[in-house]
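SECTION: protein entry
WANTED: fold as tokens:
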Amino acid sequence: MGKPTESLTATDVAFIGRQKMFFVATSPSGDGGLLNLSPKGLDTFVVIDPNTVAYLDLAGSGIETVAHLRQNGRIILMLCAFEGAPNILRLWGEGDAVEPGDDDWDELRRRFPEMPGVRSIIRVNVGRVCNACGYAVPLYNHEGDRRTLLEWAEKKGPEGVEAYMYQNNRKSLDGLPGLRNLPSQS
């Protein structure tokens, strides 16, 4: 592994801008509980400053990342070069989930393109950055983004997505609190 730093460099930011996907990992506190590792894509990742990154959290079947961050804040993000020069970039930090209605929501939301099904923004205060060789990561050609999740959210409409999140995103698989700003469903 390369030499760790405490913040992103201009080279790191340029690398992030070229990637088509990233991975997010979190874990609940203690010995038990389910670890979570999720791939992410679309145009959902932004660098705010050398120590702050954020991504749009789109509606999905689980709410593990949000629940783990609410419990302990620990998160790691990883980006791999699947095209061009090999590199793996890991960002360790403390994260929080900003939901619609929270004080920082409007300012953060403006940094991202409009997309249906947005449930929160994951913001990470990055404290450790490290590049690794990535020599064994395979080369892949990016053919395009999958639009399945966006099409699902568009078809459901805002009320349908909200009902889905109320049903599926209030608690994690381990029973930890998830989304908190959902209106009650009758």
Remarks:
- The CA atoms of residues 80 and 88 lie 5 Å apart.
- DSSP finds four helices and seven strands in the chain.
- The first helix runs from residue 10 to 18.
